[in-house]
Amino acid sequence: MVRPEVLQRRLRKLDEYLEILRRLRRYRFEEFIQDPERYGSAERFLQLAIEALLDMGNHIIADLSLGEVRWYSDIPAILTERAGLDPELKEKWIRMIGFRNILVHEYMEVDRRIVYEILQSGLEDLERLRRFFAAFL
């Protein structure tokens, strides 16, 4: 059984991160790229949002005994096979995980244009994943 308090706490944090990311959308690219506080915040809150999704996915997989997670990319794959995650959203989530790895491990090489593009057009995918997890409550 999925423990609702675990999901609720992470969903609240995800909502907080998404609100901050939505506010960062309002800047033109030039304003965004010239201010380290803006792009640094965007990078960090994108990372935290992806981490929250991974935590929820791992929690559901463990609590429902859906499979074994060895790599982060196993989480969307298992949830697609065993819990009804949309295959298109699975692929987007796997790309998010790759971007999270860049933010964490290759942080000196982050392309801020990509961060800006994600703010402008990629938050919907995070919101779709949020709705997927909220359905487990």
How would you summarize what this structure contains?
77% of the residues lie in helices and 0% in strands. The protein is mainly alpha-helical.
Number of helices: 7
- CATH class membership: Mainly Alpha
List low-confidence stretches. none
- Could you state the CATH homologous superfamily? bsu32300-like
What is the approximate shape?
A: elongated
Strand content: under 5%
What is the number of independent domains? 1
Label the structural class: mainly alpha
Number of strands: 0
Radius of gyration: 15 Å
3D structure, described in words:
The chain has 137 residues and is mainly α. The protein has a single domain (4-134), classed as Four Helix Bundle (Hemerythrin (Met), subunit A), CATH 1.20.120. It has 7 helices and no strands. The protein has helices spanning 4-24, 29-33, 36-63, 74-83, 87-105, 112-121, 123-134. Helix 1 runs antiparallel to helix 3, helix 1 packs antiparallel against helix 7 and helix 3 (36-63) crosses helix 4. The mean pLDDT is 97. Belongs to the HepT RNase toxin family.
